[in-house]
Amino acid sequence: MRRPGVGYAALLSLPGAGVAVSDAAVADQVEVETKYAGYIAREREEVDRGAAHENTPLPAGLDYRTVRGLSIEVQQKLNLHKPETLGQASRISGVTPAAISLLLVHLRRGFAANTGHEQQSA
To answer: Which sign, positive or negative, has the C-alpha torsion 63, 67, 72, 77?
Structure first.
């Protein structure tokens, strides 16, 4: 059903397909879930990654102008609101998922620099 032109009805015409459901809404739902299963799984993974960093603390004195790659608009908004966690930062209007990723990279690099540990590059 993931191929164009192949649907629930076409599959039922194959030998050994079994008995069709009588409710058209159920058949449509099966078709939609099958076609979009990959997209839904990716979105769930993205949500799970975001939830894992929801409570990641941001340093109180962080000057967001020092975070490489952030747009000036995002720098200004973060410096204005001073979020305490990545979750709070992600809910500020105009702060994109890409900006949150840049903050994560900045925090990881800062952590390695502050502890004297060198990060290994692959």
So the answer is: negative
Q: What global pTM score does this model have? A: 0.58
Q: Would you tell me the crossing angle of helices 24-35 and 37-52 to the nearest 10 degrees? A: 60
Are 95 and 89 spatial neighbours (Cβ–Cβ below 8 Å)? yes
C-alpha 56/C-alpha 100 separation (Å) is 11
| pLDDT tens, position by position, 28-75 | 888 888 888 889 999 998 888 878 888 999 998 899 999 999 999 999
CA distance readout (Å), 85 to 29, 53, 59: 38, 8, 9
